[in-house]
Prior knowledge:
With 518 residues, the protein is of the alpha/beta class.
Amino acid sequence: MSIQEENIARLVERRAAAREGGGAKRIDAQHAKGKLTARERLALLLDEGSFEEYDMFVQHRCTNFGMEKQHFDGDGVVTGCGTVDGRLVYVFAQDFTVSGGSLSKTMSEKICKVMDLALRNGAPLVGLNDSGGARIQEGIDALAGYGEIFERNILSSGVIPQVSGIFGPCAGGAVYSPALTDFTLMVKNTAYMFLTGPAVVKSVTGETVDQEQLGGASVHASKSGVAHFAAPTEQEGIATIRELLSYLPSNNMEEAPRTECNDPVGRVDDALNAIIPDNPNKAYDMYTVIGSIVDNGRFLEVHRDFARNIIVGFARMNGRSVGVVANQPNVLAGVLDINASRKAARFVRFCDAFNIPLVTLVDVPGFLPGTQQEYGAIITNGAKLLYAFGEATVPRVTVTLRKSYGGAHIVMSCKQLRGDINYAWPSANIAVMGADGAVNVLYAKDIKADPEHADEIFEAKKKEYEDLFSNPYQAAQKGYIDDIIEPRNTRFRIIRALEQLSGKRQSLPPKKHDNLPL
Length: 518
């Protein structure tokens, strides 16, 4: 065998060993937990044969606590680039079979390299997390590595899409990288995120809680809102990430890819003409409306189980990606509260950063009252959504279906917040408040002064108020509503409006950065 042949054989051997990660036993242990390996995850995420790996032979440089005797090529993370549906994506996947996926300085350098490449080349970054946290043996070097990653998350924010998949443990400082990215997906039963584990919680607060209760996927998807998606299996989680990327542009200088649409633009739905109940206090399902107007009824919901009184997610209209924001009358009557405001504000800001038009469907009776909301800063949190819509420069189409009352009317992408095209259904009620409340405020003295005819006075004044405001014509007469449309034609009218707005150019005053009410 020649020297060249020996070198090639050695390369093949080293590559094979690197692909084994921590070895067969640890891979078997990973599978026994119902988890895939880092490379198996990347194989599902990326188009077949597209993966280009970087730094396969990197090893850690730590000599503390016997680490000089433990060396694995790749050092616990697989990094590189590939394609998803033919589009370039940079990736890293932590390998739990090597030192529990713990972060060393060299691992952070590998991750930072692909983050820099993603930012430089204008391509999305997907990180698949499965790590025990900072490598204790490296001390401050590991912490410095996290800091380097966090800084790149911050600099990349609003420039390239960043997606985090949590496929195992993610604890302590490690949680902040996913928190800084645009979307976080967790896998149920195997993934968890928390700053301090159950043992620390027990010692400090006396509270007994397990990992799943403290930071499992279901908790973060429904209670904290940390997770945007919760998948039952790793395979479904990766499929969700692929679908999510299909709606997004590669960077903030591009538009999302437009797909061929086989759903007729002029398709009408007569069922929408009858969906609003005659009783204004009766609910209906906003998902029905969304499914009716978007291409082929396909809707990728974000934060599905969190703050369910508002709906956000991605769809296509005539093949164009859009972000949908809609009140949900079926949950808390569609009222805005702290969590709903936070949820929608972050989604609106993401769409605005990445040139994705916004379609807003309004049926909102106001903000949720009560001490819990006021003490929790509903004023500041509601202002986040107000701010998000007010600064957005992407094309925006708003349709008011039924109620649009008080401050909530303003917040939900009204004309005065630079909404481009604002439509209303004939059933729309745009006013400071509902008829019952308004009459009680305006005519309280008259009703009190004549108790014998109180009911008659109340009903007469209520009808007067409803005749004036329980329709969209007052707003339309003043130009606050551009047109009153028949519900069955909503899909066609929104698509036509978006086509008109496709060349929209709007900018904000020069500034270093804004100071939104955090």
